[in-house]
Design goal:
The complex is a heterodimer. In chain A, about 35% of the residues lie in helices and about 15% in strands. In chain A, helix 5 packs parallel to helix 6, helix 9 packs across helix 11 and helix 9 packs across helix 12. Chain A starts with 7 loop residues before the first helix and ends in an 11-residue tail after the last helix. By secondary structure, chain A is an alpha/beta fold. By secondary structure, chain B is α+β, with helices and mostly antiparallel strands. In chain B, the strands form 4 sheets. In chain B, strands 1, 5, 6, 7, 10, 11, 12, 13 and 14 form a 9-stranded mixed β-sheet that branches. In chain B, strands 4-3-15 form a 3-stranded antiparallel β-sheet, with no helix packed on it. Chain B has a two-stranded antiparallel ribbon with strand order 2-16. The chains are: A alpha/beta, B alpha+beta. At the A-B interface, helix 9 of A face loops of B. Bound molecules: zinc ion (ZN). Zinc ion binds next to loops of chain B.
Chain lengths: ~475, ~475
């Protein structure tokens, strides 16, 4: 049997029963990557020898003992590259482990492989990677989504059992939806950001990509919790994320936000999501209509706050201490050339935008105003959750689009995230899981269902997702590579 | 119309915390370059700042000592600019919600330069503060022939910025402000505040205008390495600006560098090149609720120099000048407090400290902290003198021996047989011998030349080898000669 198609739970059973070893699992992945990654291009690099050294010492009694996990190339792992999809960090090797990596290691997992991404997590297609785009395993001419497109694609293509990604405006949920797997963006502060190269500090969260809902719960158990190295991490107890899995969802109220079912949404996506909602009704959930009236402002607010923060966060990439360093004459020339050569066009666009909105004379009109609207968006969700236990809606307005289709139209690209961005602005948890396929040009393209919950309500979101997953077969489908 | 100067100071103070402002690296000077660093203070990708609580508390304590208000919430912001000594190319600082607001630094006579203490224009003045905020220090650049080295050991060290109102009217007041501030910072144990070591740095804003007119063009001066250099630089700058205005030149808002060697200021940049720092709240740090630690910080507020001074005058009868000297340094004030507590005459203890102990320490290149005579031991010496057990000239000898050996006064008096002879029987015998030896002086005395007794007295002292109590000798002689 092919090990690579296993979920974490299934692999763990085999590891614990000593049917296979962690080295077997790594070898199987390596063979699979060698066979398909030329086509998918989900990985930027992988160090098999280093992973094997860790696998040899893996403690199988730990919750993720012996499980290799792919890591988005934005999370620091000691001794490994962390290019963030940018030429800027091509010469950089991480001198330390991110907290999530330390936690994965402590739980027995083995970080293996650096997954491709849009440069500095800015984008929705991985086309902004300086090292070439990742291809959607379901249709290699299409995008896997982004920015964590590599993480999503390698899990969908069975090149990894699971992966970590980061989500600033949808960068986990949208690629999970487009690749037909599970992706979770936890509550802001639930997972430490220490060691995650920052794009927008008040929005970024690390989360898992998995083949099943249960696997996502297993990883969340490990990576969640207060971190003394991250002041914004929440000092709240971590519940067992698997605790509610399998429990009945009868009587639960699911909210359908009227602003998320709009004209312009792809008809096949609309149909699949509505069918999923009917399925929930058949499982005993009650569907209520809710309203998130400030939804229309979310994209605008996001591109002010995220760019403002990124303009400062990316200032450190100056070639003085690490990373790319241009030939230059003089200090100003050094900064100019290093950043001109190191950053790609989308990153530059956002730094310029962020610099502009923070400039004196514009700060109040843009940044301050955006923060106020952000509060309104958060209040929208608070009011909605007074009427329902979770919100159910599409993850992406459309299935995977063609590579190259949007590359020249940033505004159109920004709209790929209209259903995911408000979640980050509100800091609430969100999850995407497979809910069907669209037929496009004779190819099956996955469709994602998005569930949004109250802060720290991840266990219930997982319970609701699990109820759907266990009564449908969408998650069992595999791309034919 | 004469032009008068207006001066405001921005003082940066390195706090004496064990670790840096936002990471666990040690604050340590003189270490090998770039050995007290980590991903956080080097601005590595993914590293995040975590607040140093001790730095917040020390700043709040400074605020309490200077009478500032400490608002319930303060926050940290990013100040954006590119420079190689700035690891993240933004500095974490406090923009619109600082830790401390208001307050003031009371100037005292003795904080002024010695040559100006007689001509203080506004005695008892307090220089008001605008605010005190907390930020991180930058790295240290070292320029070599064809390159620049950067030592990040200093990057991220907690730095407190104390901003005064433009209340200062002369170079001497600027000097007094810094001395008084320095004293208070050292008293509170928040900084060693040594300007020559860069623990205290001062930028001065100087302008000149006619009295009553709006303030003149503000010019900032930097690069002064001592408090007296600040006095010199401000004095130079005032003169320069007045001369310029009188010549009809138009001053422009700018920053100037003080060069101590040539004793001049030179323009570094004018306002046209001023930065837009694009401040915004640091999303990596949550706003700080100061009420969490303020109750505890209040218990740590020490008695301040001027408060000690007043108490020494009030409780110990010390002169205001002596009280100021004693209160100028916390260790010295503590020494005096300890000695005065059990002294018969605290005023005499003060005299011994100021006249004898301080000069002995200076000669021996010691400080009060490693003084060989403990406060208690000095107290014993002074009490021996005050009780008449030894004379004050013997006291000097005993003091010198105590300072050299660390032995207690009683032991030295014993060993050297210095005890004063106060037995009137023994003294009477010596007096009779002296009277017999001095018929001329006795005759003069009896003829009404009263000071002639001094030579007889001198003989008695000589005969007693200095041990006779001079007061008793006088009494006995007067009695014998009256017979
Ligand atoms: Zn450090």
């Amino acid at each position: 049997m092919d090990l690579t198609s296993l979920s974490i739970s299934a692999l763990r059973e085999k590891l614990v029963a000593r049917e296979v070893s962690p080295l077997d699992a790594l070898d199987a992945l390596d063979a699979r990557i060698s066979a398909v990654d030329d086509k998918v291009h989900g990985f930027l690099s992988r160090d098999l020898a280093l992973a094997k050294a860790h696998a040899a010492k893996a403690d199988l009694s730990l919750p993720l003992g012996g499980v290799p996990i792919a890591i988005k190339d934005v999370i620091n792992v000691t001794g490994e590259p962390c290019t963030c999809g940018s030429r800027m960090l091509l010469p950089y090797r991480a001198p330390y482990d991110a907290t999530v990596i330390a936690k994965l290691r402590a739980a027995g997992a083995i970080p293996f492989g650096r997954a491709n991404m849009d440069e500095f997590a800015m984008g929705s297609s991985t086309e902004n990677s300086a090292f070439g785009p990742t291809h959607n395993p379901w249709d290699l001419t299409r995008t896997p989504g982004g920015s964590s497109g590599g993480s999503a694609a390698v899990v969908a293509a069975d090149e990894a059992f699971a992966a970590l990604g980061s989500d600033t405006g949808g960068s986990i949920r949208q690629p999970a939806a487009l690749c037909g797997i599970v992706g979770v963006k936890p509550t802001y502060g639930r997972v430490s950001r220490y060691g995650l190269t920052a794009f927008a500090s008040s929005l970024d969260q690390i989360g898992p990509f998995t083949k099943t809902v249960r696997d996502a719960a297993l990883i969340l158990d490990v990576i969640s919790g207060k971190d003394p190295m991250d002041s914004t991490s929440l000092d709240q107890p971590v519940p067992a994320h698997t605790a509610l899995l399998g429990r009945d969802i009868r009587g639960m109220k699911l909210g359908m936000p009227r602003e998320y079912f709009i004209d312009g949404i792809d008809p096949q996506v609309d149909a699949a999501v509505r069918a999923a909602i009917r399925h929930y009704e058949s499982l005993g959930a009650e569907i209520v209509e809710v309203s998130l009236p400030n939804t229309e402002h979310a994209v605008g607010v996001y591109y002010i706050i995220a760019t403002a923060e990124c303009s400062a966060n990316l200032a450190r990439f100056d070639g003085v201490r690490y990373g790319h360093r241009a030939e230059s004459s003089g200090l100003l020339d050094h900064y100019g050339r290093t950043r001109e050569e190191g950053f790609g066009p989308e990153v530059k666009r956002r730094i310029i935008l962020g610099t502009y909105v923070l400039s004196s004379g514009y700060y109040d009109a843009y940044y301050l105003r955006a923060q106020k609207v952000r509060t309104l968006i958060r209040d929208d969700f608070t009011r909605a959750f007074a009427q329902c236990d979770a919100i159910v809606c599409p993850t992406s307005p459309e299935p995977a689009f063609k590579l190259g289709d949007r590359a020249d139209d940033p505004l159109k690209m920004y709209l790929a995230d209209i259903f995911t961005i408000a979640t980050n602005l509100a800091g609430i948890p969100g999850l995407s899981l497979p809910c069907g396929f669209a037929e496009v040009d004779g190819k099956k393209l996955p469709i994602g269902l998005q569930l949004l919950g109250q802060p720290l309500d991840e266990p219930r979101l997982l319970q609701i997702a699990h109820a759907y997953e266990q009564s449908t077969d969408w998650h069992k489908a595999r791309p034919g590579l | 119309m004469p032009l008068i100067p207006t001066i405001g100071l921005e003082v940066h103070v390195q706090l004496k915390t064990r670790s840096k402002m936002f990471c666990g690296c040690a604050v340590e000077f003189g270490a090998e370059p770039n050995t007290r660093v980590c991903p956080v203070c080097l601005g590595y990708p993914g590293a995040l700042p975590v607040m140093n609580r001790a730095a917040l508390e020390m700043t709040a304590l400074t605020g309490l000592m200077l009478g500032c208000a400490v608002p319930e919430v303060c926050k940290f912001d990013r100040k954006n600019y590119f420079y190689p000594d700035m690891p993240k190319n933004y500095q974490i600082t406090q923009y619109d919600q600082p830790l401390c607001v208001g307050g003031g630094v009371p100037l005292n006579e003795f904080a002024y330069p010695k040559d100006a203490q007689k001509s203080i224009v506004n005695p008892g003045k307090t220089v008001r503060l605008t605010r005190i905020h907390l930020e991180e220090d930058v790295a240290k650049s070292q320029h070599f022939e064809s390159s620049t080295g950067i030592d990040f050991n200093r990057a991220g060290t907690p730095l407190m910025e104390i901003v005064s109102e433009p209340d200062i009217a002369s170079p001497e007041e600027a000097f007094a402000y810094l001395i008084a501030l320095q004293q208070i910072l050292i008293y509170g144990g928040v900084s060693d505040a040594d300007m020559e070591k860069g623990q205290l740095r001062c930028d001065c804003n100087v302008s000149v205008a006619e009295p009553g007119a709006p303030l003149g063009v503000k010019i900032e001066i930097k690069n002064m390495n001592s408090i007296s250099a600040v006095r010199r630089a401000v004095a130079y700058e005032i003169e320069r600006q007045i001369a310029a205005v009188q010549k009809g030149e138009r001053l422009v808002q700018s920053t100037r560098r003080w060069d101590d060697d040539s004793a001049q200021t030179f323009e570094m940049r004018s306002k046209e090149s001023a930065h837009d720092y694009r401040y915004f709240p640091d999303p990596d740090l949550l706003p700080v609720d100061t009420s969490v630690f303020m109750d505890e910080v209040r218990t740590r507020r020490p008695e301040l120099p001027h408060e000690k001074r007043d108490r020494f005058v009030r409780d110990f009868g010390v002169t205001p000048y002596d009280a100021s000297v004693l209160a100028s340094e916390k260790a010295l004030a503590d020494y005096f407090d300890a000695a005065a507590k059990s002294a018969r005459k605290p005023k005499n203890v003060a005299n011994w400290i100021i006249n004898d102990l301080l000069s002995a320490l200076t000669t021996a290149e010691k400080t009060i902290v490693d003084c060989p005579i403990s406060a208690h031991a000095l107290d014993e010496l002074v009490n021996l003198i005050d009780a008449g057990t030894i004379s004050s000239s013997q006291g000097k000898e005993v003091f010198a021996a105590m300072f050299a050996t660390g032995a207690p006064a009683a032991q030295i008096v014993e060993e050297r047989g210095l005890k004063q002879e106060s037995d009137s029987g023994a003294i009477e015998a010596l007096c009779q011998q002296a009277i017999a030896n001095s018929p001329k002086a006795v005759a003069e005395y009896k003829a009404g030349k009263l000071q002639a007794i001094n030579s007889v007295k001198g003989q008695v002292m000589k005969l007693s080898q200095g041990k006779a109590n001079p007061v008793v000798v006088s009494q006995v002689l007067e009695k014998l000669l009256a017979e």
